[in-house]
Amino acid sequence: MWKYLVIFLAFLISSCSHEDPFNTDSANSYQSTYNPSDSGDFIIIGARVLTGTGEDYPSADVWISNNKIKSVGTDLNYPADMRLIDATGKWLTPGIIDIHSHMGVYSSPSLRSNSDGNEATDPVTPHVWAEHSVWTQDTQMPLALKGGITTFHVLPGSANLFGGRGVTLKNVWSRTMQGMKFPNAPYTLKMACGENPKRVYGNSNREPSTRMGNVAGYRKAWIQAEKYKEQRGVTRDLKLETLAGVLDGEILIQNHCYRGEEMAVMLDIAEEFNYKVTTFHHAVEAYKVADLLAKNNVCAAMWADWWGFKHEAFDMVWENVAIVDQANNATGCAIVHSDSPIGIQRLNQEAEKARSAGVRAGFDIPRSRAIQWITKNPAKALGILDEVGTLEPGKMADVVIWDQDPFSVYAKTEKVFIDGLIHYDHKDPSTPKPTDFELGLLKPGSDRL
Amino acid sequence: MKTLIFFFSLVFSLIVQGEGLLLKGGTVHTSDSEGVQKNTDIYIKDGKIIKVGKDLQVDASRVEDLNGKIVTPGFIAPYSQLGIVEIEAVAETRDDRSTVYSSGLSIVSAFNPHSTLIPYNLRGGITTALSVPSSSGLYSGLASSFSLSSSLEGSLISRDIALFGSVSSGEGSRAAKMLLLEDSLDVASRVIEANGWNDEKGLPSSSSYSSRDIIALKRVLSREIPLVVRADRASDILFLINFSIEKNIRLILRGGSEAWMVARQLAKTNTPVILEPINNLPGSFNQLGSRLDNAAILNKAGVKILIASHETHNSYLSRQAAGIAVSYGLPWDIALRAITSNVAEVFGLKKIGMIKEGYRADLIIWEKDPLEVSAFAQQIYISGRLMSSESRSTRLRDRYLNLD
């Protein structure tokens, strides 16, 4: 009884202690607690290195120092007693980044009790945050790690016009979401075009039930957000706080949008309310508006070949990614994403499907460029390119060693480093660390597999 | 009942006229015990493979020099809804489900040879597919096999060749599903033609079986067709194996996430398994033992495996799945058989799935290893006819390739 009273009093005191109870800045809450131990210094030598910056070294050394990339090159001057990892004959790439994942919010096993990705109770839910749903013990995460995924972005689903905030996580085992949270990565806001919102709400005779209803819904919300910006500090509104953050340029729009026409309309809405669309996701028809996307500096996140599961996914072409990449004199921003716990395990293969289709269509797309679709470009679209996405001095040492050309179906990762620490080693059966869920599951005395 | 129908008349109208086609100097993966034959010729006439060998001396009207390119049989999808689903979320384009019929649901009349999925998947390497209804419940219906020729009259290869079902989906006790499996077959075995089909004593009141449904079950009982059951948990699989012995039926397992745990029993009973090797998630409590080397373990134990894609629209991705199985220990030639000859053999598709004299000339010429994700079919032949590589998807591409 006393305990509860004390907690209650503490709550009252803490509530009163804020000078501005309506401070709209959520940035200081839910902070990342991810803090890797010191990796020390070591060099991975002799691998064929795709840096993500466009370089392709037939053989190079990668120097990692205190969790960061120190240097990449062929003639590194390192001390004789340096710890070496021989990767001769192997391939080395930056850690793979998936910009569209639902790991932790749609977990495996897939159960109703785990289905935490769509707050499908209202079409406008920018107040919900995917991170508050994340189950850190999702079995998909270590499987993705084996596929080279070092960073992934968890988005709410697409039932709503505004689905809520997305969160960028490092693919490390942790008891808490905060322990995985990518330090200082910007928040994102999931928006959805097309069939999903109008189906979910139209079926229960609510607005929106049409694509024009969708658009009216976005505009109405942005008008409220504009008004809120003027009155900020007077009252606090979780929904409008997120929308205002977009208008301030602090929260990045990740927009689920299949059709070319709809992408063009969404760009006009962004112009009307003066915000930026960072990325169109599931952009099956991006190839129809590739020039428009390149001109507006908008990325498109795409699958290599998924199609036909709904009408707006009917016009898929294998060359979609390549066409987006090559638009406007190869200034397009193409991303290969998964949206799938199967696909996330082999984004490298998806990139190769898209690359080879592009090459067959006559484009010159070397591996050194295609690797950017799953490293540099998603990092850029998530606002974390200064820290990951390429192998450049000062960046986080997120590095994957592959047993062979990662653009082959036969390629497997051998070692996956996150911030210079090894999280998967094909020779160490205790890696990746199994989730809590997997302990003693099939046999009491052992882990899942 | 005749289960195999060949449309010879149509085949004749499609083949190269004259004295046939000679494919010279290929790296030929025959998909049978011959394995790979280098620098080998294939002579095709009247839609069939007439001869396979080195330096064939034949008077062909057309000669194609392959310069060592890889030749494989056309791939066969062991599980798909090709021709009976156009867009998954558009109910009016789906003919793969019924609440009226269960085990008796035959989809032959619904098959659409002009479906856009057909030329698209042909381009990916599938020349033949089992089209399988996917009604929920214990029995989803009868599968038929089709050629992906887009031919209005000549697509059907063989009708109602296997009964598909599942014990692993949905809610309600699995025990009830196993009991219903047992009871429905028992009822079918008691029904004699003269007695009529409406004698369903012994089935729970919610189960309704038509004469078609009962007839399909009787065909399973007489071993005329196999029963293909989706099951993932090891204990379920073991139950089904024992059940198939007890009832003396031909069981094929589909799914089989935990099949590796009962590999010995599957091998001993010659129970083939249709796998989706790409699917390694513990996606449900029935699949906690999912693993990428399932195919390799089963093969090593002597189990015959068939490999399917995990999505109908990309049925051809069975070759990516096969490639993944290879990277996790399945021998390459076994992986090729798992998407060609094994499928034909297990489902009784005659003279399809191998490059062999007398076989249908369903062939693919590849620029590189067809299990690679970057591999592209350069030429595809169905019954000796060179197929178009166009699809709706390539038409869209061509329209938008050069925007500037």
Q: How would you describe this structure to a colleague?
A:
The complex is a heterodimer of chains A (449) and B (404). Chain A is of the alpha/beta class and 449 residues long. Chain A has a domain at 95-389: Metal-dependent hydrolases (TIM Barrel). Chain A has helices at 2-17, 140-146, 195-202, 211-230, 238-247, 260-272, 290-295, 320-330, 347-360, 367-370, 376-381, and strands spanning 41-50, 56-65, 68-73, 83-86, 91-94, 96-101, 149-154, 162-170, 188-192, 252-256, 277-281, 299-302, 333-336, 399-402, 413-418, 421-425. In chain A, strands 1, 2, 3, 4, 5, 14, 15 and 16 form an 8-stranded mixed β-sheet that branches. Chain A has an 8-stranded mixed β-sheet with strand order 6-7-8-9-10-11-12-13. In chain A, helix 8 links the parallel strand 12 and strand 13 (333-336). In chain A, helix 4 crosses helix 5 and helix 8 crosses helix 9 (347-360). The longest helix of chain A has 20 residues, at 211-230. The radius of gyration of chain A is 22 Å and the shape is globular. The model of chain A is unreliable at 5-24 (pLDDT under 50). Chain B has 404 residues and is α/β, with parallel strands linked by helices. Chain B has a domain at 75-353: Metal-dependent hydrolases (TIM Barrel). Chain B contains 11 helices and 16 strands. In chain B, strands 1, 2, 3, 4, 5, 14, 15 and 16 form an 8-stranded mixed β-sheet that branches. In chain B, strands 6-7-8-9-10-11-12-13 form an 8-stranded mixed β-sheet. The N and C termini of chain B lie far apart (60 Å).
